[in-house]
From TrEMBL, chain A:
The keyword Translocase does not apply. It comes from Halopseudomonas aestusnigri. Keywords: Amino-acid transport, Signal, Transport. This is Branched-chain amino acid transport system substrate-binding protein. Belongs to the leucine-binding protein family.
Automatic annotation (TrEMBL), chain B:
One of its GO terms (biological process) is L-alanine transport. Its main location: membrane. This is Branched-chain amino acid transport system permease protein. GO terms for cellular component: plasma membrane. Keywords: Amino-acid transport, Cell inner membrane, Cell membrane, Membrane, Transmembrane, Transmembrane helix, Transport. CDD domains: TM_PBP1_LivH_like. InterPro entries: ABC_transp_permease, BCAA_transport_permease. It is a multi-pass membrane protein. It is found in: Cell inner membrane. The keyword Membrane applies.
From TrEMBL, chain C:
GO terms for molecular function: branched-chain amino acid transmembrane transporter activity. It is a multi-pass membrane protein. GO terms for cellular component: plasma membrane. This is Branched-chain amino acid transport system permease protein. Keywords: Cell membrane, Membrane, Transmembrane, Transmembrane helix. PANTHER family: HIGH-AFFINITY BRANCHED-CHAIN AMINO ACID TRANSPORT SYSTEM PERMEASE, HIGH-AFFINITY BRANCHED-CHAIN AMINO ACID TRANSPORT SYSTEM PERMEASE PROTEIN LIVM. It is found in: Cell inner membrane. The chain crosses the membrane at residues 44-61, 90-109, 121-141, 146-163, 169-189, 196-212, 264-285, 315-338, 350-377, 389-405.
Length: 375, 310, 419
């Protein structure tokens, strides 16, 4: 124990000397974790999900005695989901000598920032970026506690082919990394199974009028629509489809699984299919956590709350197992162990992705409740 | 005789385009009036439209809370209060961000307006949150055109209301400009601000009035679109403003019929592109059309070619 | 006197109440699927009341306040002093030397975060200087400048992805490509008048962004392009391990690897590019074409009468301005290592334009100062978090009212006869 501690210390000193910055060494009694994501900007509400989950984990771990006698401290960094600011944030994190990052949120921010973390030996776990590209570059320091677009697509595609058996499917996406990635994956599955895809099109995120698109879908005679993107646009598409008499079933990824979609689309959201990670806040064994969130007047139902919680916990457990805050040792511990978290038993593969992350197909109802259709 | 389905499809897309175009036109008039009189682009105009939408939602939600569920009452109240509030905004924007800058380099008010636009957007974001706010459909239903079994065009009542309100507003505005005393003063200002002032007309009041009318029209668009789409957020103003500005320039900035024509043309172009080509390229085609038209008519479709004077 | 001010005072108070009462006083509240309203809380009401009262009394006593204001000693006129630097070449040179020295020393005095921020500032300085040619000197309102910036960034990224082009070659290609785009766009549109030109360039910027987003087969669409190579110093790489056939900087110099070297190198590289930009623009300003730009901005008809071809001169400004955006874009791509179309939205154009105008159109030292302010200020105001953009917008408005000519208005290079 003592030996290991000394070793870690000497390593840290070496790291500090290497980095050349004087403020680099981490104080022995606190371990700082950078929480990077949008505090401002249009997707700030998703950033909030990540922050409340991570902060709750930090609070609870500290209450339970911290990590190896040290307390965790969360430091929030705002990247506004802007790639340019994400790089600046990453450099500031390096500057402040923080070795662990939970973030970023948007894949386009995570990607350039992770280049810097990898270089600097900072361990990063994203709880929200689902682009396959992020872990596809052979990096050692990059992990994630959420599923990939490339995983979610096939789940949805196979469900459509096996359960719905439609003739003609339209695949629509919002031309953003997340939406287009999933939509492309779904289309590929459909085409491989000889399902006709007469319409594969992008819309502009933030648009309000989809009447031209809906008329097109009506004319093409599609009997099923898959949408890759977020809830504001799909909500409007559903609403306008209902008004224009396009009476087909829609399906979307977890980005549309938000109570707001029922507020926007009203009755039209009844019967919408959504692939979601298991609803962690519905899991009975997380009941006490949900209570803790509710006690702080926070909403635990967002898709990134629990993955962010798990990310912090995995870091803490990794440090315990490695018995050191040396990130290489922690990364090694992460790869070779499995972790009990509120999102299930997590273990990471070589790339840093979760080995098993299941998406469940839900049926959405007009009152924003949902029922699971698959296990 | 049965018409082919493709014709109904075309009719549907034209109707869709005209609906969107009408609202572009309503917002574009605000740009064009201000430009016509003081030659400045009021970049914050899109935000006024957004504020109009928010006020409409607040009014409707408030009425619903007091148990007033009658749709006509709600709509009339939303129009009245929303127009009143945005008029105040139009007036204040002119006082704060334009009047002190009048007469200088024309880039200065443009920057000031961009700043104002950022300010208003964030003001609403802080006060109302950045989440989408949705409202249930208030007026549903419509009429079908064409065969019931095949593809048929639908025209919703809400779309009809949009057409009707746009038409009425345009007529009233045209009458106001051409017949009323104040309208004549507006035209005089557009012709020559300094000369009009010398002739004893309070040009400051005329300019303020222009901003107020423009803002009230933006509120009309805000209420209509708020009800039509049922969803608002603090960011809707920017894109709507950009499109309306494009429409105004397309039709010839400074000309009110031009703004209407530009708005409708832009809306129809977008719908046709989305309907026959690809939704992804509708903005590219819209801006491409603008560039093309300006190449052949450098002052827009109905704009007066500027005579350069020494 | 007060009585005559009573009416405007009451009106202003009422207007404030109308402006804020509904929009700030109540809050739309979406609970599940139902829409409700909640009050914003007493502190907001107090603020509204305070604002209305303040404006009421301000307008009521505005004449007295005005007199009081006049009685106060005038604001120190530091900027005026700075502009007079132009009159004394020696002082001016000294000032520039000092500036450059400070800029070179900055990364060694600051930490990594500070250096990186400095790099960001320098990118904006480059963009500001480039746009300054078009807007400040030639008087052409360009709202789509970010389009050329995107062309430069993507030019380098694509070249690197498909043809393995290095940074330095990429820099030249990106600059030329952006210049070509500027030329091709400028050719048809430059006969348009000011505001029409503004919207056409704005549309052009949007078209470029949308095309980059849509042409997935070429640009990877919204996924962006990653793994863009970092700049090298005469073939020396700034990385822990050298890639094949290359050598790293730390091995060559014989020091241990430190990742901060690269951050500093990037900063110095940006500084070098800015200095080259400054030098080129200063030479151009003294050349006939530079004089023609300004002459054209002041009076186009007079220029025609003097035999200057306006289209050619404008085209020159447009092309040269675009090429600087191309350089900046290439450098941006190299610094980021990853680019996607979302970095090139209209708001970026607006910020660059704001830098030019804030600094004082045509003034280079002003552009530098404004770029620093516009980049640092949001960072400083991060504590205000949600109020940051609000203050940013407010500042733009107030700046334009307070100093419409910019922080440091341009001083023309000229010589005076000594008497």
């Amino acid at each position: 124990m003592k030996m290991a501690h000394k070793k870690a210390l000497s390593r840290m000193i070496a790291a500090a000397a290497l980095a050349g910055a004087s403020t680099c060494a981490v104080a022995a009694d606190t371990i700082k974790i950078a929480l990077a994501g949008p505090v401002t900007g249009p997707v700030a509400q998703y950033g909030d999900m990540q922050f409340i989950g991570a902060k709750m984990a930090i609070e609870q771990i500290n209450q339970a005695g911290g990590v190896n006698g040290a307390q965790l401290e969360g430091v929030v960094f705002d990247d506004a989901c802007d790639p340019k600011q994400a790089v600046a944030v990453a450099n500031r994190i390096v500057n402040e000598g923080i070795s662990f990052v939970v973030g970023h949120l948007c894949s386009s921010s995570t990607q350039p920032a992770s280049d810097i973390y990898e270089e600097e030996g900072i361990l990063m776990i994203t709880a929200a970026s689902t682009s396959p590209d992020i872990t596809d570059r052979g990096y050692q320091m990059v992990f994630r506690t959420i599923g990939l677009d490339s995983l979610q697509g096939p789940t949805a595609g196979n469900f459509i082919v096996e359960q719905i058996k439609p003739q003609k499917v339209a695949v629509i996406h919002d031309k953003q990394q997340y939406g287009e990635g999933i939509a492309t994956a779904v289309r590929d599955v459909l085409l491989a199974n000889d399902v006709e895809v007469p319409v594969f099109e992008g819309i502009t995120a933030g648009d309000k009028d989809f009447s031209a698109l809906i008329a097109k879908l009506r004319q093409a005679g599609v009997d099923f629509v898959y949408y890759g993107g977020y809830h504001p646009e799909l909500g409007l598409i559903l609403r306008q489809a209902g008004e224009q008499g396009l009476d087909v079933r829609f399906m979307g990824p977890e980005g549309v699984g938000n109570t707001d979609i029922s507020a926007i689309a009203g009755e039209s959201s009844e019967g919408l299919l959504v692939t979601l990670p298991k609803a962690f806040d519905q899991d009975p064994k997380n009941a006490h956590l949900v209570e803790a969130f509710k006690a702080k007047n926070e909403d635990p139902s967002g898709p990134f709350v629990f993955p962010a919680y798990a990310a912090v916990q995995v870091i803490a457990d990794g440090i315990k197992i490695a018995d050191s805050t040396d990130t290489e040792a922690v990364a090694e511990a992460l790869r070779s162990n499995s972790f009990e978290t509120p999102t299930g038993t997590l273990s990471f593969d070589e790339k840093g992705d979760l080995k098993n992350f299941n998406f469940v197909v839900y049926e959405w109802h007009a009152d924003a409740s949902k029922t699971a259709l698959t296990e | 005789m049965a018409m082919p389905e493709s014709l109904y499809y075309l009719i549907q897309q034209l109707l869709n385009g005209l609906t969107v175009g009408s609202t572009y036109a309503l917002i574009a008039i605000g740009y064009t009036m201000v430009y016509g009189i003081i030659g400045m682009i009021n970049f914050a105009h899109g935000e006024v439209y957004m504020i109009g939408s928010y006020i409409a939602f607040i009014v409707i939600a408030a009425l619903a809370m007091f148990g007033i569920e009658s749709v006509p009452v709600m709509i009339v109240a939303a129009f009245a209060i929303s127009m009143m509030v945005t008029s105040a905004y139009g007036y204040s924007i002119e006082r704060v961000a334009y009047r002190p800058l009048r007469g200088g380099n024309r880039l200065i008010p443009l920057i000031s307006a961009i700043g104002m636009s950022i300010f208003l957007q964030n003001l609403v974001r802080i006060a109302q949150g950045s989440r989408d706010i949705a409202m249930p459909t208030m007026i549903s239903g419509g009429i079908d055109i064409g065969p019931q079994d095949g593809f048929h065009a639908t025209l919703s009542y809400m779309q009809m209301i949009i057409f009707a309100v746009t038409l009425i507003t345009m007529t009233l505005l045209t009458l106001f400009i051409s017949r009323s005393r104040m309208g004549r003063a507006c035209r005089a200002c557009a012709e020559d601000l300094k000369m009009t002032n010398l002739l004893g007309i309070n040009t400051n009041a005329v300019i303020a009035l222009t901003f107020v009318i423009g803002a009230a029209l933006a509120a009309v668009a805000g209420v209509l679109l708020g009800m039509y789409y049922g969803v608002i957020n603090p960011y809707i103003g920017f894109m709507a403003g950009l499109k309306a500005f494009t429409a105004a320039v397309l039709g010839g900035i400074g000309s009110i019929p031009g703004a209407v024509l530009g708005g409708l043309l832009l809306g129809v172009t977008e719908a046709i592109t989305a309907g026959y080509f690809s939704t992804e390229y509708k903005d590219v085609v819209a801006f491409g059309l603008l560039i093309l038209i300006l190449l052949f008519r450098p002052s827009g479709i109905l704009g007066r070619p500027e005579v350069e004077k020494v | 006197m007060i009585r005559s001010n009573l009416k405007p005072a009451v009106i202003s108070a009422v207007v404030v109440a109308i402006l804020t009462g509904l929009l700030l006083g109540v809050r739309l509240d979406q609970q599940g699927t139902t829409l409700g309203l909640v009050g914003a809380g007493p502190d907001v009401y107090w603020k509204i009341a305070a604002a209305a009262t303040f404006l009421f009394f301000f307008n009521l006593f505005r004449d007295q306040l005005g007199a009081l204001w006049k009685g106060l000693p005038g604001l120190p006129k530091a900027p005026a002093k700075l502009t007079s630097l132009g009159d004394k070449p020696a002082l001016r040179r000294l000032f520039w030397c000092f500036m450059i020295a400070a800029a070179i020393l900055w990364p060694f005095l600051s930490n990594r975060g500070g250096t990186d921020l400095g790099t960001l500032v320098l990118i904006y300085v480059m963009l500001g200087l480039g746009l300054n040619i078009v807007v400040g000197l030639a008087g052409l309102l360009d709202l789509g400048y970010v389009g050329f910036y995107a062309v430069g960034a993507y030019g380098y990224a694509l070249m690197a992805m498909y043809f393995d082009v290095g940074f330095w070659t990429g820099l030249i290609i990106a600059g030329c490509l952006a210049a070509l785009f500027g030329f091709l766009l400028g050719f048809p549109v430059l006969r348009l008048r000011g505001d029409y030109l503004a919207i056409v360039t704005l549309g052009f910027g949007e078209i470029i962004r949308i095309l980059l987003n849509n042409m997935t087969w070429l640009t990877n669409g919204p996924n962006g392009i990653g793994g863009i190579p970092k700049p090298t110093l005469f073939g020396l790489e700034f990385s822990r391990r050298a890639s094949e056939g290359m050598q790293t900087f730390h091995e060559f110099v014989g020091i241990s690897y430190n990742s901060e070297h690269r951050v500093i190198f990037l900063y110095l590289l940006a500084l070098l590019l800015v200095l080259i930009t400054l030098f080129v623009i200063n030479r151009l300003l003294r050349m006939p074409i530079g004089r023609a730009w300004e002459a054209l901005r002041e009076d186009e008809i007079a220029c025609r009468a003097l035999g200057i071809n306006p289209t050619a001169v404008k085209l020159g400004a447009f092309t040269i301005g675009a090429s600087f955006a191309g350089f900046a874009g290439c450098f941006f791509a190299a610094r980021q290592g990853f680019i996607s179309p979302e970095s090139f939205t209209f708001i970026e154009s607006a910020i660059i334009l704001a830098i030019v105008v804030l600094g004082g159109m045509g003034s280079q030292i002003g552009v530098i100062l404004a770029a620093i302010i516009m980049t640092i200020l949001p960072e400083m105001a991060r504590e205000f978090d949600e109020y940051r953009m609000l203050l940013f917008g407010l500042m733009m408005v107030l700046m334009m009212i307070w100093r419409p000519q910019g922080l440091l208005p341009m001083s023309r290079p000229h010589m005076e006869l000594r008497t």
